[in-house]
């Protein structure tokens, strides 16, 4: 019994000694920010940082305390890819960014801070910080610049080009508007139709042809397209071009070069003489078909073509019959140029013109008799002049001879 009493007293004594020599050690914790309700702490929780916050400089100072005044070591268990402890002392840690924030990559970050007093298991504090968007992305034309080919026989109202424009920023920073102007505009040939997404950040745009194109009038259109976001502080724009190449189709007849065609012929002009040449060329400039020529009967005019022939390939017109006094006057020959369509995939097209031929009385033929007379007269005049001179010389000689006598 005595032994038990001693042991019991000894145990009590040991307990008292232990309580005096080893007190319980409490873990550290973040310090509350005065006047916050609900209470906030100096630990960055729910703070917001703009995505253009610079990397390096201190952005926040954590403050913690330890009931036992142990030196606190701050650490980052999660989130060290973006955040770092730049420097620290026993109660404060200065935090900076080690990588740029990017709202478009992550709108928030989880960080687990650790507070280690060296005596307790490190205290973990899980916080969230939020990234604030800035207007750091210009709107983007997907697949730009744009080039399309449009055949000139496309109907008005056809959509010739569709494209997407988008802006990856948020809110007003990503809300975009689109406009289009035509370089060297001669009127509204194209219009822009826009289908805007509900958040305003994506536009599906159609370019619609308001009128039928005409390769022979214009082969190229260039549209300047501008997109602008609605950024609060700075607005960003992007520009691109849409090139519309007009593709020729066979839709033009031949046209004549060198009109009007007027010729003079004498009724004495020899047969097979070339009178005049007509020339026509396909109006489809990029794919000219060859043309053939022919006379066309035209009862409405004095168009007797019997005296003439035309070379179907060259358009050269010849006299093929000897004219006479009865032929004098005006002739009006109607001529057609026909496109030759070797592919046979469309109808030939043609154009007509007129050649006005005036037939005059024969030009004086070369007269050898009159040439002989002219030569005779000239010779006689020459002889007469020589004779007169000889007589004058002889008279002067006689006069001088008499005076000398
Ligand atoms: Ca933007
Ligand atoms: Ca942004
Ligand atoms: Ca043609
Ligand atoms: Ca054409």
Automatic annotation (TrEMBL):
Leader sequence segment: 1-24
UniProt keyword Protein transport, yes or no: no
Subcellular location, record wording: Membrane
InterPro entries according to UniProt: Cadherin-domain_protein, Cadherin-like_dom, Cadherin-like_sf, Cadherin_CS
Gene3D superfamilies to which the protein is assigned, alphabetical: Cadherins
TM helices/strands, residue ranges: 375-399
Pfam families from the UniProt entry: Cadherin (PF00028)
Residue span(s) of domain Cadherin: 51-141, 142-256, 257-359
UniProt cross-references to SMART domains, sorted A to Z: CA (SM00112)
Highest taxon of source: Eukaryota
PROSITE patterns: CADHERIN_1, CADHERIN_2
Keyword tags: Calcium, Cell adhesion, Membrane, Repeat, Signal, Transmembrane, Transmembrane helix
The protein's name: Cadherin-related family member 1-like
Species name: Saccoglossus kowalevskii (Acorn worm)
UniProt gene name: LOC102803568
């Amino acid at each position: 019994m005595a032994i038990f009493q001693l042991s019991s007293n000894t145990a009590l004594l040991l307990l008292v000694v232990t309580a005096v020599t080893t007190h319980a050690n409490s873990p550290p914790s973040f310090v509350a920010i005065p006047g916050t309700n609900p209470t906030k702490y100096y630990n960055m929780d729910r703070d917001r940082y703009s995505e253009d916050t610079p990397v390096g400089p201190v952005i926040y100072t954590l403050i913690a305390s330890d009931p036992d005044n142990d030196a606190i070591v701050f650490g980052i268990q999660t989130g060290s890819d973006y955040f770092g402890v730049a420097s620290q002392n026993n109660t404060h840690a200065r935090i900076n960014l080690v990588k740029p924030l990017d709202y478009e990559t992550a709108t928030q970050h989880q960080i687990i801070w650790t507070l280690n007093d060296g005596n307790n298991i490190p205290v973990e504090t899980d916080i969230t910080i939020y990234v604030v968007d800035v207007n750091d992305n210009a709107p983007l034309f997907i697949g730009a610049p744009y080039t399309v080919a449009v055949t000139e026989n496309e109907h008005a109202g056809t959509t010739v080009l569709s494209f997407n424009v988008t802006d990856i920023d948020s809110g007003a920073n990503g809300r975009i508007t689109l406009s289009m102007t035509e370089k060297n505009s001669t009127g509204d040939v194209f219009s822009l139709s826009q289908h805007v997404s509900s958040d305003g950040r994506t536009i599906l745009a159609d370019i619609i042809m308001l009128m039928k194109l005409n390769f022979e009038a214009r082969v190229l259109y260039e549209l300047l397209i501008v997109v602008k976001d609605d950024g609060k502080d700075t607005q960003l724009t992007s520009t691109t071009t849409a090139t519309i190449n007009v593709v020729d189709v066979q839709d033009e007849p031949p046209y004549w070069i060198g009109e009007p065609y007027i010729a003079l012929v004498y009724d004495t002009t020899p047969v097979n003489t070339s009178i005049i040449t007509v020339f026509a060329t396909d109006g489809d400039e990029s794919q000219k078909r060859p043309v053939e020529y022919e006379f066309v009967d035209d009862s409405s005019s004095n168009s007797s073509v019997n005296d003439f022939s035309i070379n179907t390939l060259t358009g050269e017109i010849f006299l093929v019959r000897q004219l006479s006094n009865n032929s004098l006057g005006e002739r009006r020959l109607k001529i057609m140029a026909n496109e030759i369509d070797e592919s046979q995939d469309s109808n030939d097209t043609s154009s007509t013109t007129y050649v006005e031929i005036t037939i005059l009385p024969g030009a004086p033929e070369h007269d050898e008799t009159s040439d002989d007379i002219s030569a005779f007269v000239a010779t006689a005049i020459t002889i007469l002049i020589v004779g007169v001179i000889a007589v004058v010389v002889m008279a002067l000689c006689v006069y001088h001879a008499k005076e000398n006598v």
